[in-house]
Amino acid sequence: MALMVMAMKSLRNTRKSLHKMGRAVAAASLTLSAGMAMAAGTLPDRWQLNMHPGVTETARNAYHIHMLMLWICVVIGIIVFGAMAYAMFKFRKSKGAVAAQFSHNTVAELIWTIIPIVILIVCAWPATKILVHTADTSNPELTIKVTGYQWKWRYEYVDYQGKATGINFMSKLDGDSDRTRQLKSGLDPHAVKVGEEQTYLLNVDKPLVLPTNAKVRFVITADDVIHAWWVPALGWKVDAIPGIINDAWTLIEQPGTYRGQCAELCGQDHGFMPIVVEAKPKAEFEQWLAGQQAANAAQNAPAAAQAPVAAPQG
Amino acid sequence: MATHAADAHHDDHDHKPQGFWDRWVFTTNHKDIGTLYLVFAFIMFCIGGAMSGVIRAELAQPGLQFVQPYFFNQMTTVHALVMIFGGVMPAFVGLANWMVPLMIGAPDMALPRMNNWSFWIMPFAFTVLLLTLFLPGGAPAGGWTLYPPLSLQGGSSVAFAIFAIHMMGISSIMGAINIIATILNMRAPGMDLLRMPLFVWTWLITAFLLIAVMPVLAGAVTMLLTDKFFGTSFFNAAGGGDPVMFQHIFWFFGHPEVYIMILPAFGIVSEIIPTFSRKPLFGYQAMVYATASIAFLSFIVWAHHMFTVGMPLGGELFFMYATMMIAVPTGVKVFNWVSTMWKGSMTFETPMLWAIAFVILFTIGGFSGLMLAMVPADFQYHDTYFVVAHFHYVLVTGALFSIIAAVYFWWPKWTGKMYSEKWGKFHFWWSTFFVNVLFFPQHFLGLAGMPRRIPDYNVAFADWNLVSSIGAFGMLASPIIMFAVLWHSKKHGAPATTQVWEGAHGLEWTVPSPAPHHTFTEPPVIRASMLAHGDVTH
């Protein structure tokens, strides 16, 4: 019974206490990672122990469910392993313990069948609500088509606020990381940096630029084998499968650079196809988009280079 | 010298075939075939362990120091195939061969010649599989799950690996048929189904799982074969096929397979804990029904391995709920083991230590399994080191620990020799320490965002990876220590008594140690007090 009450209470206080707990854990891992405070949220920390809450509602939801389950497991673990430890110290033959001969107890067995069922229902409820919410990809402002290749990504900005953009580019591992990652290259992975950040294997030549505070829908597929598109700070991964188009969405709340990797084994360079998302405030994003379109136009019509076609403004 | 004399004495009564060829190659004796399976599994554990040594050496530091990424992928793929199909499964079949007839009072397995064939397929299957490492293009490198289209990019190794998998499948199915036939037909009078030891029960259920799912795997890999070499498009989108269908079929095999590797472990632990608690197993019938429930549920949870393939919402919810339900019967088992220890009179010989570690560490693997069942969180965990940590807790500290526990538990019955408790305990503490150093930090790596199956990583992951690799190198010594303990026992061990352990109950403890070559040629008379779970009628 005590367990059930605890589980209910923990659920009621999930948001509050888990936030606190999360901060405590994050703080602890930060303390451990000397001098890496700058990196929080964009790169993993050294000695990181726990998931980060990320920068989207989806990521925070994943984090909350993760922490809820973690604490339920910790509580059950303490009870079960505590009982075992007590039994091992108390009921030792060397201490003169004489074995009882009972072999079942219907009441106890019913209790420990029913209580776990109740706990599971308590867990399934928020998970279901979150999942229903996560599955809704309707009404995006921006649609990005992601295509996985061995071993790089193509990003197509299909439409932004209802207008086709024509932006479409490849994104692959940056040159510094690529040189360093060769077998016995003799180069130090710690020396691969962008500013202060050690970005070895987590940097690309051209990042995916997204607006903050806008619902972005992804349609995801692959051209050769199965890949998976994953940026931990956004809170989900989805497989990129040849012949199948999957979808997902995100709404990034803070500007920043968020890094991830391919998460489905896709051949020899599976470990070397990172993902970088640069989230910019809407105005900056639109500026960037216009710049890309202008560059495209200039490329497509070199004769008219002197009087570039006005890019459609979103 | 005295022990040698005793051996010779036993031999006289045993009517063992004398030549090596007759004794081991043409054998139809369940004990000898059990020994063959166990020796084979030990060799495979060493080979698979050596491969994990390559993996952890490369992962000890960021940057590529030792192997090319493609060879790294071959190592992860073949490591898994060798450990699952060559290590864990044959070890359990070996234990079943040795112990099931002894536990139910049968003179041998029901189908002794088929038993011989089941075993002797295995060395050929694994020779074929391991030789792919020396083919041009190397061994399979698409992961043990063989997901197309990637797995089809391999060269001729695809055909060899699939042939090897077919052979292993035939072996497993024949082994399972044999175990079912033995248990259903050859129990001694009075050994009713609900009086059978838990190890026999869990193996009976496991054998049905094997028969149900090995043909599914065979079908899936045959479709891969025809896609690769005969122009079909089962899994090729360009030809109207569906790569995701392979995953559904594979995991319809794969999830029951997971339980094939853990149900016999439950049985072993359910024999050992009552023995050293000197108390009947708590909730015997609940244990049987829980095992059956887990087996049933294993058929309806497969897609929890594929939450990120883009299933419809309804599918994700169904597989999440079904997966969470597994926690209930599994919880019942854990609570029953703890209750068996409760108010017992416990001693902590080596098998008991391994069994207790199994309960704790397997439960930790179960906890992470429950976390993985939650779809919103799984979108983060999936295909990261969190998953790697999870299944190694379940398979190494779960399945493998139970196998080691079983070897120490029944070794004196097999050989007639006690092992050194001091060195057995040393083996236990060494392995338990290093296995946790090896796998626990992998939870942290996964939560921090490190994908699985990568040969190199960002420098932020370096610290925990180094810790994990140190644990791995410690663990590599574990089979060597075990071999030394058992070798020493065989050469210099004190003679074992018939009952071996003070709290031991069950028919296997009524035959002399070592168990004679032929046992129960006359059916024994079964009394309730002989059984580990006591009289289940009240």
UniProtKB/TrEMBL annotation, chain B:
Gene3D superfamilies assigned: Cytochrome c oxidase-like, subunit I domain
Q: Which GO terms describe its molecular function?
A: cytochrome-c oxidase activity; heme binding; metal ion binding
Do you know which InterPro entries this protein is assigned to? Answer: Cyt_c_oxase-like_su1_dom, Cyt_c_oxase-like_su1_sf, Cyt_C_Oxase_1, Cyt_c_Oxase_su1_BS, Cyt_c_oxase_su1_dom, Cyt_c_oxidase_su1_bac
Claim: Transmembrane is one of the keywords in the record: yes
* One protein family per Pfam: COX1
Localization per record = Cell membrane; Membrane
Q: Name one GO biological process term.
A: respiratory electron transport chain
Gene Ontology annotations for the cellular component aspect, listed alphabetically: plasma membrane; respiratory chain complex IV
Xref: PROSITE patterns: COX1, COX1_CUB
**Which ranges does the record mark as transmembrane?**
36-57, 77-98, 119-139, 159-186, 198-225, 245-269, 281-305, 317-339, 351-375, 387-411, 423-444, 464-487
- What keywords appear on the UniProt entry? Cell membrane, Copper, Electron transport, Heme, Iron, Membrane, Metal-binding, Respiratory chain, Translocase, Transmembrane, Transmembrane helix, Transport
Which pathway does UniProt place it in? Energy metabolism; oxidative phosphorylation
Q: Which reaction does it catalyse?
A: 4 Fe(II)-[cytochrome c] + O2 + 8 H(+)(in) = 4 Fe(III)-[cytochrome c] + 2 H2O + 4 H(+)(out)
EC number(s) of the enzyme? 7.1.1.9
Q: How does it sit in the membrane?
A: Multi-pass membrane protein
> What does the function comment of this entry state?
Cytochrome c oxidase is the component of the respiratory chain that catalyzes the reduction of oxygen to water. Subunits 1-3 form the functional core of the enzyme complex. CO I is the catalytic subunit of the enzyme. Electrons originating in cytochrome c are transferred via the copper A center of subunit 2 and heme A of subunit 1 to the bimetallic center formed by heme A3 and copper B.
What is this protein called in UniProt?
Answer: Cytochrome c oxidase subunit 1
